[in-house]
Amino acid sequence: LYFFFFQAEDGIRDSVASRGLGDVYKRQGIDAEYMGIRFETRMTDKREMPKWLVYYHQQLDARNQSQSVSFRELIKNYSEMMIKCKLLEEQNRALERERLVNKSSSAPPEMLHLNEQVRKLEQELKGTYKDNQASTMQILELTKKLNESETEKKELEGKLSAANEYNTHNATLIINKSQKIDELEMTIDALTKEITALKEQKSSMEKQIIELNSDNRNLTAKIISIKQEMVEKMNEASDIYQKGLEMLSKKSEPVKPMTFEPIPSSLAQYMIGSSMCATHASIPDKPKYKIVAHSNEALCVKYDNLGNALATCGGDCLIKIWDPKTGKELMKFKDHTKPVTCVDFTFEGNLVVGGSVDKTVRVFDMKTQRLKHTFTGHQDTVNAVAVMTRQPKVVSGGGDRTIKLWDLEKFQIANHTNYPSGIFSMDLTPDDNMLITGHNNGTLIIWSTTKFTKILEMKDLHKNDIITSVNISRDNHYCLTNSKDNTMKIIDLRKYEVIQTFENEAYTNTSNTNRSCFSTDSKYALVGGNAKVFLFEQEKEECAQVYEEDAHQSRVMGCDWEPSGTRSVSYTHLTLPTSDLVQISVVAVSLKKK
After folding, report:
1. What are phi and psi of 563, to 5 degrees?
2. Contact at 8 Å (CB) between 543 and 257?
3. Whether the model pTM is above 0.85
């Protein structure tokens, strides 16, 4: 606690010898240094004080720090004023003595000498006062600089302490980081060793894969060889069977006209289980006959599973059923309101299904020759339909980018999915496990029919052009695609890769519905172009034959190969639809063995 007293008698004197203000400070227990400017308490450590006293000390310290400058100025002004007062007093005394001297001019010489000495002493005293004043000012300046130096020293000491703490913290961090770096280096070494071991394992596995692939190729070659032997034996048996039939037909009564009765379920199951198909396909020789089929372009042709009936559809909104043996029309269905783009039979042959520009899928009964049901739900043209073999269901796809599965017993939708591009063609594997669709952006997609999930997507298979046709071989091994880029490709469904590409300078795909097909033994691929039909041989990877004489006068829209692939009674058929604007026809080409 600070108390300030001012004594005007003698002014501020030396802090030790003074009997004025300095003595007052001493009597109060305060040490006055440098003329009362700097004060320090002699009290004990604040930590030993009561809290209230500590609080007052803190308040007084704050007040001292805020008011010390103004107090120094006050002391300085006071000192200057006291010095001036002393000078004025001395001047008054001198003037008073001179006045007395003038009055007593008759004073003795000793008195005059004493007055002269007094006057000299007074002048010396004045000089001493001036020197003291200058010294006082220097002391004040030095004291101020000393205080500033101490403040700066404290600040520097604080900074030095903070820097030391920062350095200590950084040193700790460096030690921790070094430890982590050591741990990471150990981890990297362990991972490097693990990667090296994995590379060695990978190399070993690659060698094993190469060996397994070699074994697989050898086994495949053996299987193919055994299968070929079986095919030859079956062909011999088929020839014997055909000769027996011919001998019986000569002795028996004439054959009755064909009727469309459904295949018995037991026979159908047997045919499905045995994958009934021809083991050898004969090469077409020349056209057998020409049929006027539609009043507008023919868009699709399809055999039933036994080759007993042939369905065509076209721009005249009709579906027609033909006898492939005679070329005669058996029936027609005219319930579609717009061109019919695609057609297919059920496995039993009792129903025929058509898709149309009128956005519907219609089911017709072959026995009653009437419309059985109409499926609606597509928002654009239905471009493709495919009937399942093992289940009473049909799949449809269209320009609305959707694929729908329809139930032919409950006559309702069973499942559906979609894709960002329109569907222009599709086909099912004989076991109904996979659906393959061709799209207008050149993409081919293989779907699982269980939940309509994608198995494989082959983007830009045909250079971003429409895939107009998808046909799966009867042995379930290959898929044939046809596109507006004027090429056909064969995909191996066991490896999911393209193994062959067919093209010919004379071949041009002129229609979005141009459908190509495999032969029954998958050795040949058939496709139609500008008034020509091209036969490509798979083994030679080249065009084996071009049919152009007495066949068509305009672009060929598609083709289909009879399921048996050999003579059935007296001949078998290869059927081709055309879009001749003058004479719309379906041409049956006779087959003969090499």
Report:
1. -60, -35
2. no
3. no
